[in-house]
Design goal:
globular, alpha/beta, 4-stranded parallel beta sheet, 7 helices
């Protein structure tokens, strides 16, 4: 059962409103599984692509009792000079550093928000009680190294992880299945296999 969360969006609604919405919906689903067609033994997880990847990851730090997380092309910090930021800064890669800065300037009220421990996940000190995580990263993506680094932190903390790099694709590939047919199918099959093993 897949539930798409319609959290309030920026720029009208800035942090932490959209994250609070996602956490609240997740809590409601956990507390009312049967109302959504599940039963008490059904495992509950979160998944997100791009900004949704950050939100899904953050929800796992805030809401306890989740069974898995699927993070696709997430950005997990806003100030580091990660190599992929520079390597894929040309317009040919669609999402550039300038575009990332524009997104974050609309999603957050100020730089202090971007430093908040709920979204600056690469700076967190504790990764206790996090569920198993599937990372899906695009090879030609300025936020690719966010996934590499966050995966290493979770592994070091003893969280079960799986990392899959989708070769030859740019950041928004998963939202364009008509163009990236094989790559999107690879993601779907990877997600299915991951969920079957939870």
């Amino acid at each position: 059962i897949w539930i798409s969360v319609e959290y309030r969006l920026s720029p009208e609604y800035k942090f932490p409103i959209w994250l609070d919405d996602a956490c609240e919906v997740t809590r409601q689903i956990l507390a009312n599984k049967k109302d959504y067609g599940a039963d008490e033994t059904t495992k509950i997880g979160v998944a997100g692509d791009s900004a949704g990847g950050l939100i899904a990851a953050s929800v796992c730090h805030t809401v306890k009792g989740l069974d898995f997380q699927i993070l696709i092309c997430g950005q997990f910090e806003f100030f580091r000079e990660l190599p992929s930021r520079t390597e894929f800064s040309h317009n040919i890669f669609v999402i550039t550093r300038d575009v990332l800065d524009w997104f974050s300037s609309n999603a957050f009220r100020n730089d202090d928000d971007k430093k908040d421990s709920r979204v600056s996940l690469l700076d967190k000190e504790s990764f206790d009680s996090l569920p198993p995580c599937l990372f899906i990263a695009a090879e030609l993506d300025p936020v690719r190294d966010d996934s590499y680094n966050y995966n290493k932190l979770l592994e070091k903390a003893g969280v079960k992880t799986k990392f899959v790099l989708i070769k030859g694709v740019v950041h928004p590939f998963f939202s364009i299945p008509g163009i990236f047919i094989k790559s999107c199918q690879e993601v779907i099959e990877t997600v299915q296999e991951f969920m079957e093993n939870q």
